[in-house]
Amino acid sequence: MAGEIPPQSKGSPEGKQRPRSIKPSSVVQVPLAGVLSEIVRRIKSPVILAAIAFPIIVVVALVLAPDIMDKLPALPYVMLAYGTIVVLIVVVSAYVEARGRAEKHAPPAPRPPDPQPRTPPESGPSAPGDPERRYLRWVHDKRALVALAGIDRQAGDVTRQGMTLQAVYTKMDTRQHALAGERYRGAVALRPFEREQMARERETRPLPALEAISVEQRAVLLGGPGSGKSTLVNYLTLCLSGYLLNAHADWLTRLQPEWDGGSLLPVPVILRNFAAWIPAGTQRGRADLVARYLHHLLKEADAIAYADDLMKTIERGRVFLLFDGLDEVPAEQRGVVRDAVRAFADGCNCRTVVTCRTLSYSDEEWQLPGWPVYELAVFNRQQIEAFITSWYDEAVRLGRKTRAEADDLVGRIGQTLDSQWDEFQPLAEIPLLMTLMAIVHTDEGKLPDSRVLLYDRCVELLLWRWEKEKRARQEGQPEELGLLRDLNQPGVDRTALEKTIWCIAYDAHAEQGAHPGVADIPANKLTATLNAYLGLNEQQVRTFLSYCQERSGLLLYSGARQPEGALKPVAIYTFPHRTFQEYLAARHLASRGNFPSAAVEHACQGDHWREVILLGVEWKRQQGDTDYALDVARALYPTERPARDDKASWRCAWLAGEAILAVGAVVDPHRREEAIELRTRIARRIADSLEIGALDVRERIAVGEALARLGDPRFSGPCLLPEFVSIPAGEFWMGGEGYDDEKPVHRVRVEAFSISRYPVTNAQYAVFVQATGRESPPHWTGNQVPPHLANHPVVNVTWDDAMAYCRWLSHETGQAYRLPGEAEWERAARGAADQREWPWGDGWDAEKCNTVEGGPGTTTPAGIYSAGASSEGVLDMAGNVWEWCSSLYKPYPYDPGDGRENPKAKRTRVLRGGSWDDLQIDARCAYRYGLDADYWFDFVGFRCARGSR
After folding, report:
1. Which of 99, 374, 643, 671 is found 20 to 30 A from 260 (Cα to Cα)?
2. Interior angle at CA 201, CA 197 and CA 203, nearest 5
3. Taking a C-beta distance cutoff of 8 angstroms, is the pair 398, 409 a contact?
């Protein structure tokens, strides 16, 4: 298709040299679509058109005057040779150009042919003398059970079998989509023509996470806290190691049909542990660090004799490297760990996956340039139901429930979710929280109605299972012994113990600072706290710690480590998940009489207190103390507009918005109006932060999504219209020197018009859908916009959808709204003064727009890239989403009178601006793309114009 977007890949930065140990393939995969696209471009050039026209004229002449053949009998052969040469020139030059682009944007290492399936070792019991089997058995057994220690009150009971991961694992999808009925071939392999097919047929499917990572040589898997990243890594490790231990079992079958990665040897590495192992003072991340750490793991597995064979297997590319938890690496080590992982992966032909939290990976310091990125989707309703069914089936198998009891509980939790879906959806769609819900529901037969109450019930189960859980004892001894009875300390009751644990969590969180993950709590600090708050002596402290270590309660024994400068290893304890650490710290903070002022103080110390403060506000609200919760939001709100560089105050304004959302509806009629007025002022203040770009991109995205839930004040009235920017009449330079369809650069006059400052958002489009009954975009849930996406540009809309919206808006408002013409769009993006490449000027800056180079890999809230505004203040003209124009896709010079503005013509229409899924070259003011009017993509939207044309 003429005007087609060039093939794109998420290439690595130029100039990076490979380590000498690497032997990269010299073969570069040249996309067929790229070659075809270049052929089309060449055919359009005047020289080639003339070359093609010449033989056509000769053929016509031969038909009209056949006697020419008598005079020139060799003419047909000459013309055949001539045509062959022209075709070869076109094809070869197109191939050379496409190859050049493929080389420029190739990922760090091309994927080698799929390795031959490994032949499993002889099936049967693990052989003591076989180090490979000892390693496989070690990695397999460590992942056989669901990681519920400290979460499920029965998980730590050595007398009972735990929930098996293979039984309750629920397959996860990514946020990306693939063609229905076809195997996914990888991010780089998806051609522009295939994207058009996806749009034309509207037959796409969510892309399963296993399918995505099975076809990539390198991949980054992102997700939020508790999204299932580690669970997926553990499940893949479990199945691959299980197959290699026993090929007759169904381990590999369990990965089907999504898995296409063969029977590779799994090598999982928990990056937090790797970082803790790295010798102090290490400044550079080298491949040998990973190699040495693998030796360390083999020693732990009692399989050090397998070291040489493992390295040879890695060299042959028959290993799957699984690096889990990049976000849990301390900030001061992130560069070393990231570079070591990248160097090791680049030095071998093994498939490699790195997992990381989504927000952490948006920070450039965490990123692995050139690695395809996939983000885990939250559970949908079908996956939630599948998990619940699997959970209770496993409970029946383990004898914890009868079949009748399980069926009754499945029915009851389904009814609860149906009746309270809005309340429980944010919890149930996150795998970790869904697991907590299942545990609480299994024990109590019902669910609490908020996340803080859910955490409270889970903590109660964890903490007081110490008091209630049966423990195997010698005959004649009491069957049930509890922590409080064993401590036998006067004045120490349940309340005192709970408050002490709150204090332990608070102190650990404060000392941990901005470091991710759970805090390491040395035994000596636990001892000091227990002595100070409960007056425990040394023997009583040992009793307390033994409960933690042996019974896997709310505090988990995490092994012994030797801190720098220490003479001997120290026992380390942690909370089972950061969520619990934050919740318990919140209980301590919220219990203080100065919670509002303390919240401000803590908020200014860093983002690591954000979740703690919000959980504290939610807890106060659940206890009916909405006045106190409202006071926290008011205290956080900066009454005066902060200076642009006062990031702490802008973050407090953002946190005030989150807090007022957590407060919810205020019951007290005396403060209800105050709460509404405060919410409005907070929304305006955090909208100010977006307009001036006060925070970094990662934070602005989160701020924008909080603003969407609050109600974005930048959009007002029944139709949620934004500000329109006036563009005066006059001439400007249109076109560019990049591609043939941008040429020639020429002067074009446009009449005065106005254009929307932002693209049309999901919330705006939702008003239209609700009013007209038009089909909603497929990324919505039913006909409802996901709340956090309300102020994101609407996508998955055709040109006809956009035109219908404009007609409806015109009818509703009495003003004539329309799509901008192509010249109007370029004038609004480029301005009238010069021929700038991008709306802000000629110098590329990835921080000024949402494209592949610096964006999060999806749409962002409208208008958060204020530094990327055009000269007249129009935002998002580069990146975020492609925007439909009214114009037909026709060659330049631009002439509005040549039929290109005919709305009834059924031909290709113009898209402008590039998107989150495109490179900087596509975000230029002059770049053009032609697309059929009935196509839609998850990166195509539109904006409105009004006034003369």
Report:
1. 99
2. 100
3. no
For 118-127, what is each residue's pLDDT tens digit?
Answer: 555 543 434 4
The C-alpha atoms of residue 415 and residue 410 are separated, in whole angstroms, by 9
d(CA 105, CA 7): 9
Instruction: Quote the pTM value.
Output: 0.64
CA atoms within 13 A on the CB side of 643: 2
Distance CA 857, CA 362 (A): 9
pLDDT digits (tens, 9 = 90+) for 10-53: 233 333 222 222 223 333 445 555 566 567 666 666 667 777 77
User: What's residue 42's pLDDT?
Assistant: 64
Per DSSP, the residues of 482-548 read -HHHHH--TT--HHHHHHHHHHHHHHHHHHHTT--SPPPEEHHHHHHHHHHHH---HHHHHHHHHHH
Residue 189 confidence (pLDDT)? 52
pLDDT attached to residue 465: 53
Query: Which of these, 421, 418, 414, lies nearest to 438 by C-alpha position?
Result: 414
The confidence score (pLDDT) of residue 124 equals: 40
Separate counts of helices (H) and strands (E) for the chain:
34, 20
CB 894, CB 822: distance < 8 Å: yes
So what's the pLDDT on residue 23? 28
Task: From residue 750, give the alpha-carbon distance in Å to each of 727, 729, 732, 947, 948.
Answer: 9, 6, 8, 11, 9
| Alpha carbons 666 and 664: distance in angstroms, whole number | 6
- 502 vs 490: CA distance, rounded Å: 20
What's the token pair of residue 846? 């990835």
- Identify the burial level of 339 via C-beta atoms within 10 angstroms of its C-beta, where 0-12 means exposed, 13-18 middle and 19 or more buried: middle
Task: Assess contact for 761 and 905: CB atoms under 8 A.
Answer: no
Q: Tokens for 715?
A: 């959009």
Please answer whether residues 430 and 454 qualify as being in contact, where contact means their C-beta atoms are separated by less than 8 angstroms: no
Inter-residue contact 677 to 632 (CB < 8 Å)? no
Could you give the CA distance from residue 410 to residue 388 in angstroms, rounded to a whole number?
Answer: 7
368 vs 377, 391, 566, CA distance in Å? 21, 36, 35
Cβ count within 10 A of residue 419: 10
DSSP state for residue 373 in the 8-state scheme: E
* Residue 378, C-beta contacts closer than 8 angstroms, at least 6 positions apart: 227, 429, 430
Q: What is each CA distance from 599 to 364, 508, 605, in whole angstroms?
A: 29, 17, 10
Q: What is the pLDDT of residues 788-832, one digit of tens each?
A: 899 999 999 999 999 999 999 999 999 999 999 999 999 999 999
Evaluate whether 132 touches 306 at the Cβ level (below 8 Å): yes
What long-range pairs does 41-47 form, CB within 8 A, spacing at least 24?
Answer: 41/2, 41/94, 41/739, 41/740, 41/741, 42/90, 42/93, 42/94, 43/90, 44/2, 44/740, 44/741, 44/891, 45/740
Q: What is the CA radius of gyration of the chain?
A: 31
Cα dihedral value 480, 482, 487, 488, nearest 10: -70
How far is the C-alpha of 894 from the C-alpha of 675, rounded, in Å? 54
Residue 389: per-residue pLDDT: 93
| Phi-psi domain of 808 (left: phi exceeds 0; alpha: psi -120 through 50; beta: other) | alpha
